[in-house]
Amino acid sequence: MPITEQEKTAIETAWVRAQFPSLSQTVNAQPAVFLDGPGGTQVPQRVIDAIAGYLRSNNANTCGAYATSRNTDATIAAARAAMADFLGCHADEIAFGPNMTTLTFAMSRAIGRELGAGDEIVLTHLDHDANVSPWRALEERGVTIRMVEIQEEDCTLDMEDLASKITARTRLVAVGYASNAVGTINDVKEIVRLAHRHGAMAYIDAVHYAPHGAIDVRALDCDFLVCSTYKFFGPHMGVLYGKRENLQRLQPYKVRANTNAIPNRWEWGTLNHECIAGIAACVEYIADVGRGVLSTQGLPHPSAPSAEGGNHGTSRRAAIEAAFAAFHEHERAMLERLMAGLKQISGAKIYGITDPARFDERCATFAVRIEGHTPLELATKLGERGFFTWDGNYYALNLTEHLDVEKSGGFLRIGLVHYNTLEEVDRLLVALREIVQA
Ligand SMILES: Cc1ncc(COP(=O)(O)O)c(C=O)c1O
């Protein structure tokens, strides 16, 4: 008898799922199962409401001397404060942009202004191309790119190779927090330490990690960290964290009229204000999950005001951390169940870490191939049954080329996030077995 997730984990799955209106859709009379989180997650109703509410009542440009413009300024400030809590930094260290890729190209142009022949940038074969091509573009300026190898058997970074490639010539190390293809979580703190030991900056792509674990940029000590809110239950936007001194010292390409103050000098033109309104709502949703968890543990509700008008010494940040601890526990149960089930499917090859004793080094993102079936065929057949998975390389191009699966369709990717359930995992396994045996 399958165990239902409500009995096993800290999050209240029924409440969580009720927050996301899209989860109740059907495909060919089958319930839709969203296993496409790594490509983009669903949003809770409050994010939809915040976006619509902004457009209905506050639609304006910034810095005007009238109500809707002032409200727009306040909306952006609230989203910055929310992202500062989410990443553990100051609000003026947060810049918004259309997506991670665009922000990273902008940063590479700015950082590249200081680089030339003799300078080196260290990248990895595990990374999404959005953390590769923007830096490779600096080869035009004479910069040398050094690629870190991976251990093919478990799709982890070769840390010895990484350490040997960071030298006194290295100016920047760009690395992913977690792989969007195989789910490997990198030892980012150690990589930042190795970069700093040689005076290089560390640029972290946290796009894939952000829905799975709490991020603390101060603890990591990274120079930059980028993520995309549409991967963690928010709207289609990108977010850049930069250490204050970097955002102040580096020179962005910008229009003359734009301020020189941080963080606005790193934001170009008019931003997507309605989506920015959705960002604060998405962070609040995550914090609310955490508040629920803390209250079931009998701990003070972090947002409840104290008699002195403050809160109980806890904070939205504490609530966010509690939410991620609960997400982790729930995702771990699904990871174990799906891994065990996939191992039973004949002809299935799972890429990345498969040993349960090492599950702390990965998240619940699976790259799979099944003998006799292309990833596209599997994704299509699953799609007809209501399971939304992905096939191909998902821009983790260096990895699919390296593992020699690029020409034969890449992988089938199954990505689990906290709104998925053990029951969905069980149903997926049944469907996969049927497809493979047909
Ligand atoms: C690990 C990773 N990095 C970067 C990106 C690019 O993000 P964006 O679509 O915000 O440019 C993605 C998108 O899938 C990703 O998964």
Question: How is this structure best described in words?
Answer:
The chain is 39% helix and 15% strand. It has helices at 5-8, 13-19, 45-57, 67-87, 100-112, 133-136, 159-165, 188-197, 217-220, 244-249, 273-296, 316-343, 375-384, 397-402, 422-437, and strands at residues 26-27, 30-31, 33-34, 94-97, 120-124, 144-148, 150-151, 156-157, 170-176, 201-205, 224-228, 238-242, 348-351, 365-370, 387-388, 390-392, 411-415. The strands form five sheets. A seven-stranded mixed beta sheet has the order 4-12-11-10-9-5-6, sandwiched between helices. Strand 10, helix 9 and strand 11 (224-228) form a beta-alpha-beta unit. The relative contact order is 0.16. Bound molecules: pyridoxal-5'-phosphate.
Task: Label the structural class.
Answer: alpha/beta
Indicate the proportion of strand residues. Answer: 15-25%
Question: Strands of the biggest beta sheet: in what spatial order?
Answer: 4-12-11-10-9-5-6
Number of strands: 17
Query: Over the alpha carbons, how many angstroms does the gyration radius reach?
Result: 22 Å
- CA distance, first residue to last residue: 25 Å
